[in-house]
Every structure is written in C-alpha cells, then in structure tokens.
Description:
Strand order of the largest sheet: 17-18-14-15-16-19
Shape: globular
Number of domains: 3
Oligomer: single chain
CATH topology of the largest domain: Rossmann fold
Strand content: 15-25%
CATH architecture of the largest domain: 3-Layer(aba) Sandwich
Mean pLDDT: 82
Helix content: 25-40%
Radius of gyration: 25 Å
Distance between the termini: 37 Å
Number of helices: 14
Largest sheet: 6 strands, mixed
Number of strands: 19
Structural class: alpha/beta
CATH class of the largest domain: Alpha Beta
Amino acid sequence: xxxxxxxxxxxxxxxxxxxxxxxxxxxxxxxxxxxxxxxxxxxxxxxxxxxxxxxxxxxxxxxxxxxxxxxxxxxxxxxxxxxxxxxxxxxxxxxxxxxxxxxxxxxxxxxxxxxxxxxxxxxxxxxxxxxxxxxxxxxxxxxxxxxxxxxxxxxxxxxxxxxxxxxxxxxxxxxxxxxxxxxxxxxxxxxxxxxxxxxxxxxxxxxxxxxxxxxxxxxxxxxxxxxxxxxxxxxxxxxxxxxxxxxxxxxxxxxxxxxxxxxxxxxxxxxxxxxxxxxxxxxxxxxxxxxxxxxxxxxxxxxxxxxxxxxxxxxxxxxxxxxxxxxxxxxxxxxxxxxxxxxxxxxxxxxxxxxxxxxxxxxxxxxxxxxxxxxxxxxxxxxxxxxxxxxxxxxxxxxxxxxx
Length: 404
C-alpha cells in the first residue's frame, strides 16, 4: 500500500490489521519521519512466481537509500518523489493499494502498465476512505475482488466498472482460477466477454474438472450461457471447452476457448541419475501420444526412494507442480496396477512405481494410461477423482514442491 498523508496512513493501517503478514505500507518521509536509516534487510516481498525471470529480480537484501525503516511494524518510509519508487513497488508486488487521489495514480501508472497477464492489481482509496476503486487488473489480477474486500474493511463504497461485473455477467477470464485452470487461447477472453455483453450465446462443454466454477455463474445467465446440450449448434456463438484431452470437439477452433483443469497425475519411475531433459521429453511424448494436455498436469508422483532425484525435482519445479512421494510399503500390491514387473520387484521390493504412485496421488481406481516404458524412465497417468479435494490437500497441508 502507498500513502501520501497521515490520514491515508491510518486507513492503510486498518487494512493491514486484517492481513499483517501479507501487506507492506510505503509512506513518504514527511509522514513517517526517518527513524531507522537505510534498510539492511529489505522486507521480503511476494513476487509473482513464474511471471518474472531471474534476471528481472533484484536481490531483496540490496541496500537502497531511498527506503528506510520506521517505528511502525510493516511501514517503510521513502525519500523523494513517489514516481521514483513506484516502478520497484510495481515490479515486486501483486496488489497495489494507493490511498490518494485517483488522478495521481492514473498519471503515475500509465507508463508502467504493459501486460494484463502480469501487471499488478491497482486499487485506489480516497483520503476519507469513502470509496475503494478498482483501477487496473479487475479480473486477471484480482483487483475487483480486492476492491470489494477493502471496501468491507473500511466501510467504504466499492467502485467496480468492468462491464461484466456491472451487468452481472461472468468473468470468463477467471473461470476456475482458484483451482489453477489455464486457457490455451486467452486471446478469446475479450471477444467472448464482448459477445456476452451484446447478448450472444456461449455454450460450455466439460468432460474434466470440477463443475463448481460453472455452477457459480449467475442464474440470470442460464439462457445465454450453459451446457452445450441446451443449444442448437448453429445458434452458439462461442464454446468454452473444459477438458484435459487434446481433441477436436467439432466446433470451429477459432470460436472455442479451451480451459485446462488440473486433473492429471503423472506417476514416475526412473533409474538413478536420469536427467530432467530425458524425463521431460518422455513425459511430453506420453501425454501427446495419448491425447492428453500437459497443461492439465496437477502433480508428479513417485516412490520415496526416487524423490531425491535431481532430474525429477527440477522437472516438478519447472512445471510448478508438487512432487508427491510414497513409501514402498504403500506402493506394494496396490489395487489397480495393470503392468506389474517382477524385475522391478527383485530390485526394489515392489512390482511397480509409476502406476501405484499415480493412483495413490489421484485417489483413482485405474490408470487412464498404464505404465509406459522409456529411456530410463517409466510413466503412468491417472485422473484425479476429486479435483477440489486434491487442490485443498496440496495447498493446505504442504508448502514445498516436494510432498511427503
């Protein structure tokens, strides 16, 4: 949060009370005074993993004479014009709340706004805390949701002007976001949203993933957006296809927005020292040859004795998915194994690794792709039985890429 006055600081502190571990307040030296000198250990910031390259990230311990510590927890002072510190805040934070006049913010962020996929959410709160205004990143960056929350905290009026919100239409670009869904062709977001605003018909076809994001759509829209079975094909303007399969659905690709739910677990077995590139190449080959989308990968799974393989750990980190490992005792004779190997049993004491680890992680009965054998690596794929339960388990119980 950025403030310019003592009154603004008081409002920012009220917001910070709700999220003390996730918020930092920046205030000019004339408001907070210079109490602690240059910061030696800069407050750790929440950078967007995956959105920034390593070359774009500054060392968080870099001494910057523009900033200084204050006596108030979570408040950092700055020296100089606000325009000199805003680019750094812009780069390092996912949400920026500016307690000041809207015009100031618009002028200062205009040169910084570049890509809605990675730009931070920007919310403005007026000095009297009467209004919370969603300025930038309403849907993709979550500014609208943050605006409503801030308005609730301050007892202010939330001002959200995106057309879909104003008209009670669904935000197509946020469908399944909390479950980690991704879109193959996000360039259709604007086109489909515009079609809905103009009263067009958008159908949904889903063969994987939770139905909750669809059930959460406003009831008033059921006549214009709903299951594909409700409409005649020739009256559909656009199709939202929610699937983990690589397949042509019969509807024109240029009018099909494809969402990839996180529904697939790849069980992995590998020889000691198998490289990341070798594992990745074979995993990709298996997914592609079996008509499955690698974008729907939710996790890798393996035996605990393989969980320290550098190649496997690196691949899980590259795909930003957990690596779940199981003791051999849990893998032994697990129901649903389709290709047991006595050769494997003679070496490690169990007849399979890839299949039972995938089944255990996905809580599935049978693999959708039984064990495939590659150069020093085996891969089996299972479809997650309950996507929401899986996401909840991996988010709430584990914090690292490697899950025990």
